[in-house]
Amino acid sequence: MPDPLLHEDRLDYTPVPRSVPLARTRTARLLVEWGHPGLAGDVALVVSELLTNALLHGSIRGRLVRVRLTATATALRVEVSDPRADRMPCPRDVADDDQFGRGLLLVGALAEQWGVGPREGVGKTVWAEWGLAVVRCGAVPLIGVQK
Question: Which residues contact 17 (CB under 8 A, 6 or more apart)?
Fold first, then answer.
C-alpha cells in the first residue's frame, strides 16, 4: 500500500512562456512550506525544464498543461502533463555548442528517477521523484532530516 499523501498541489497553466517562471516560483515556495527547503531549488528547476518541454513539444492551442506536486513521508513527486501523447520525451546527445537539448539530462541529474506515462484522459505525464529521508527521534519520525 502506498504512503498516504501529506501534501498535494495541482495547477493548470496556459501554455505560454510566462507560465514557466510562475510554476518554478510556486514550486520553490511550496517545498519550503512543506519543510523541504534543501530540495526547493532542484525541484523548481526540474519543474521549469519539464514545463518548458511540455510547452515546446506537448502543447495544443486551447489546451492547458498541468503541474502536480505530491509529498508522502518517503517521496516527493513532480508531474507535468500535456495533451500530446504522440510526442514522447527522450534524452538526446548534444554537442558542446548546441543551444538546446539538455533539459532531460538536467532532470536525470537532479531527480533520483524520472519517467513518462499516459495521462489520465488524453496525453502524457512526465514525472520525477526524490526520496525523502525519514529519521526516527524516539518514536517520532522526523521527515526530511538529513542523516
Answer: 55
Task: Report which of 68, 58, 56, 64 is spatially closest to residue 26, judged by C-alpha positions.
Answer: 68
Residue spans of alpha helices (H) in 1-128: 19-33, 37-53, 103-110
3-56 pLDDT, tens digit per residue, is 899 999 999 999 999 999 999 999 999 999 999 999 999 999 999 999 999 998
Q: How far is CA 124 from CA 94, 131, 145, in A?
A: 24, 23, 33
Question: How far apart are the C-alpha atoms of 19 and 21, rounded to whole Å?
Answer: 6
Q: What is the widest separation between alpha-carbon atoms in the chain?
A: 54
Question: CA nearest 6: which of 28, 31, 23?
Answer: 31
Single pTM value for the model: 0.84
C-alpha cell at 16: 505560454
CB 36 within 8 A of CB 27: no
- Neighbouring C-alpha atoms within 13 Å toward the C-beta of 100: 5
**Count of C-beta atoms within a 10 Å radius of residue 78:** 24
